[in-house]
Amino acid sequence: MPTLLLLLLLRHSGLERFVHHGRVWREGIEDHDVVRIHVTKTLLTAGDKFEVFGLVRNKERAAKAIGYGASRVTFVQGDVTDPDNLVEVCQGMDAILCSIGARAGWRPPCCNIDTPKHVDYQGVKNLAEAAAFAGVQRFVLISSVAVTRTCDKISCLLNTLFGRVLRWKLKGEEAVRRAYRHEDLAYYIIRPGALNNNLGGVLGLRVEQGDQGNGTISRIDVASVAVTCVEGHCTPNVTFEVFNSKNKYSPAENLSKLYSLESDEPVVEDSESTGRLLP
What we know:
The protein contains nine helices and ten strands. By secondary structure, it is of the alpha/beta class. It has a single domain, classed as NAD(P)-binding Rossmann-like Domain (Rossmann fold). The chain has an eight-stranded mixed β-sheet with strand order 3-2-1-4-5-6-10-8, sandwiched between helices. Helix 5 (116-134) links the parallel strand 4 and strand 5. Keywords: Signal. This is NAD(P)-binding domain-containing protein.
């Protein structure tokens, strides 16, 4: 049975409050908490196909947030901003799915806890390097659209209000590509559009590359795409954007779109980014 480490790093604000009260933020702020719950539930519906582990800060809060089925998740206490035990945590895993993100909201200038730099970049970097060192075969990162569009209005707004969050997400992507540049490992970087609470499995997918498009997508559909990548049903070493289309849902068509993606250009040692990914 494949083993999967799922990142469930719940913030002090309380995931159960976030879910129950339906607070909505753009992807990259606090939407990652809701997406993680959908990913977990999607994995659990697969029966015994996966052995699911959750890296969490608070085991009780994580179990309460997941609700039914939480007993089938093995919770491991840890924090991606503290890399000391990450290699040990990653040992024996077949895949890692990472959708962490910095906590939304204002913080004092001297406060470095849960900032985009420390979570979306350094935390992702710590985890990717530990996973690669441990030989984890697949690393799936849920990022965000518009990370390369520095002059985009929405990007400017998010970067201004939330500590350059998209800039740090892009650097987190680059860290994954560098850590997973070895031929025997594979990474999948998913850039979903603006997230909504619509039902999943209703509309088809619009899959793009190059970070040029805009659109919306159901959180449930993002979770389904992430699980598809965990299973390896996608071109390896790839970065892509995903939105809901206006067409009806078609599993076969959606899967063929993921297989037709182009792999990223190989990472050059000590390079900061892969040029093909920039618009």
